Amino acid sequence: MNILWLQAAGCGGCTMSLLCAESPGVFDLFEGAGLEFLWHPTLSEATGAEVRALLERVESGAQPLDILCVEGAVLTGPKGTGRYQMLAGTGRSLLDWVRRLAPCAAHVVAVGTCATYGGVSSAGENMTEATGLQFEGHHRGGILGEDFRDPAGLPVVNVAGCPTHPDWVTETLMMLSAGELRAEALDALGRPRFYADTLIHHGCPKNEFYEYKASAEHLSEIGCMMEHLGCIGTQAVGDCNIRGWNGGESCTRAGYPCIACTAPEFEEPGHGFAETPKFAGIPVGLPTDMPKAWFMALASLSKAATPARVARNAVADRVEVPPTLRKPRG
Amino acid sequence: MNGKSLLVGPFNRVEGDLEIRLDIAGGRVTRAEANSPLFRGFERIMLGKRPEDALTITPRICGICSISQSMAAVLALADLAGAEMPPEAMRAAAILHGVENLCDHLTHFYLFFMPDFARPAYAGRGWHGQMAERFTAAEGSGLRAALEARARLFHIVGLLGGKWPHTLAIQPGGVTRAPSARDRIRMQADLRQSRAFLERQLFGAPLESFAALETAEAMAAWETGDAGLFLRAADDLGLAAMGRGPGRFLSWGAYPLPGGPGWSGGLWDGALHPADPAMVAEDLSHSWMLGGAAHPMQGETLPDEDMRETAYSWCKAPRYGGLAIETGALARQAVAGHPLARELAEQAGVTARVGGRLLEIARLQLLLEDTLAALRPESRFMERAELPREGEGVGLSEAARGSLGHWIRVEGGRIAGYQIIAPTTWNFSPRDASGTPGPVEAALVGAPVAEGEETPLSVQHIVRSFDPCMNCTVH
Q: Do A12 and B111 touch (CB under 8 A)?
């Protein structure tokens, strides 16, 4: 299958992350899976006039297009014109190009949280009127509209993440290429369930601290970051702590909170990214699929039962008290 | 050939969006306009937010200079708070930042810049066969090897920073993960792999030998590795004389370390001057922005929705003491005092810019090795830094592609002003009120254009030699 990749209003970080794919690298991986770039702004030789000619051929149907990947939010401003981002050399806005090319593609993939939901490009006052392809934040719609479906019946495939993990992108594209990504493989926000059915909490190395609500009070302390430091890994979807990034790491492994970058509107949490909003001393955002009273009861019980080792390590920047060695039997 | 105009775009293998308008007469470019066609409005996004939100938002200006943006924001907040990181945190932050810059240099050389020499248009040149084997876009053996080396190097950022891009690990008070002795050994192993790649493939020799080159003549005689292949083609195509910049080079200074910066800052124009941020102002005469020229601490971002005819870019035009300046690896090394870089700064063309970058790759690997060797895992890596509710802060840093500054103003605990001047804002700025073109616009004048060329190769070499990051440019 061929891929046309357009960079709309984003930072290019999802492409940069894609290039971190390992064992094998992205080029070998795609070659083996029968995927090739018709054009990619960062990777292809073709530039200028050659690219304009290619885009015109795709638009006219002379060049069949299998997968359209869009990275970055689409700007509809100022005043609905999309002129805050013109596709260089073409005299046309990215908004216009994406609307025209999406119906030409066998599949449309939004890469990253900007392309899926608007993301950081739509933060603050959003004066550029940035939006995702099929969502504007939590709301369905976006520039392609709620009813958009590709010829196979799929909505826009939303590979959300800021940035995306390289494997989320490569595996989505390989599954599309193999005809194995059907509508039921996507969650309600259009994200591939192979990484959206798990939580960042799963596999988090701070799980023992979480069990006892042994909390870090300041960044660089190794305790759980849910109670004080804004971590919402128990509510955020993704397999970051199962799969690992850049050699097996993750945000929480590096000692800073999960900010749920795979979710719509993560860019506007309504509080500091590294602080937990509380009501009467109790964190407001508790796990989504657990009765609050139960959570509170378990939390107070486990806090009372916290081993001294766990309590002390939680507020240290490294393990100060190692586990007690079990006495040999007999 | 009669005079004509060319519109070059989409101009790819630069990070982000770029359009170049060229006037051509007598087979040469006579005038160039660089248009940054994307406005995202990060300086507006920041208004009204908490100062510490800059740590999460501003790295997302750019997916390739993410840690550079993070460092500039951290330094601006530290300046606001009057805070300083503990010594070992400075080292850890310098390692995170240095690894990103080293990876960016590799990405630029192997993925963005060199594939142009593999184009069929150069078939028949003595070096073309080897170029095609090493650098054909998405296929070349050199390019694939570099991608692997880069991914492995980023394991260091994974270990200290969790992921790349967009880590939140660097804070005004230090870094969020205290590395252990095991972590340090692991990172040293990663750095050895990086050295092996550089010595086997890029330089074809010990990297100390390249770092020890002192003259442009000695560099031109370098024959081994991919560096040698570039220099051979550069000589054949006359790239040393092509794409001359303004000859004034700025560096804010890179890698704050306990004993002072790894590479000191300054302005080099054949002599060294201190770099004074008070000398900076952004001119808006040819950018789609409203308002007048201002120092970034007073500057605003008011986009001209009508995109008036007399302007042609969303990029503002920063000037230093009223003059256009060039920034980047060549500038950094010349300012830091390296004899080769200072000689190359006199050439100031495509070969000089790429040569300066190759020199910095060698020197940055050495700096990373030394910094990691000095890192003491048993130390503290974070102190508390309280941000005041009122005040100002400046964060000056160096991204792979040059000088980066953040200027923050806080009122009532909220951001009242946030201005950013990125490397490519300097290098790809439009004209100013006096009609003086930006550095790349001036560098393109005189570039040869062959009959029938729609996207002149000379223009591509010159533009890419600056290593532009268009995402950062307008932000």
A: no
Answer yes or no: CATH 3.40.1000.20 is held by domain A198-319: no
Tokens linked to B126: 């003595």
> Would you call A124 exposed, middle or buried from its count of C-beta atoms within 10 A (0-12, 13-18, 19+)?
buried
Residues of A in contact with B56 (CB under 8 A): 259, 273
Domains in chain A: boundaries:
2-193, 198-319
Is there a contact between A274 and B52 if contact means CB atoms under 8 Å apart?
Answer: yes
Show the DSSP H helices in B223-304 as ranges.
225-237
The CA distance from B166 to B447, in Å, is 38
Q: What angle do CA A224, A226, A232 make, to 5 degrees?
A: 125
Q: Which three-class secondary structure state does DSSP give residue A63?
A: coil
Beta carbons of A160 and A191 less than 8 angstroms apart? yes
* A24 preceded by a cis bond (ω within 30 of 0): yes
Q: Which residues, in sequence order, are CB contacts of A304 under 8 Å at separation 6+? A: none
Q: Taking the model in full, what pTM does it have? A: 0.98
Per-residue pLDDT band at A285 (split at 50, 70, 90):
confident
Q: Does B161 touch chain A (CB under 8 A)?
A: yes
Q: For every residue of B369-413, which 3-state class applies, written as one string? A: HHHHHHCCCCCCCECCCCCCCCEEEEEEEEECCEEEEEEEEEECC
Interface of A with B in 144-163 (CB under 8 A): 162-163
Closest partner residue to A245 (CB to CB) among B160, B162, B175 is B162
Best B18, B52, B117, B176 member to test A by mutation, with max A CBs in 10 Å, is B176
Domains delineated in chain B: 4-474 (1.10.645.10)
- Token look-up 């007048």 returns B292
Question: In the structure, what pLDDT confidence band is assigned to residue A292 with cuts at 50, 70 and 90?
Answer: confident
B426 neighbors B318 (Cβ within 8 angstroms): yes
CATH for A2-193 is 3.40.50.700
Which tens digit of pLDDT belongs to each residue from A89-140?
Answer: 999 999 999 999 999 999 999 999 999 999 999 999 999 999 999 999 999 9
Q: For residue B272, report the phi and psi dihedrals to the nearest 5 degrees.
A: -95, 130
- Asked whether the beta carbons of residue A220 and residue B178 sit closer than 8 angstroms, the reply is yes
Nearest CA in chain B to A13: B63
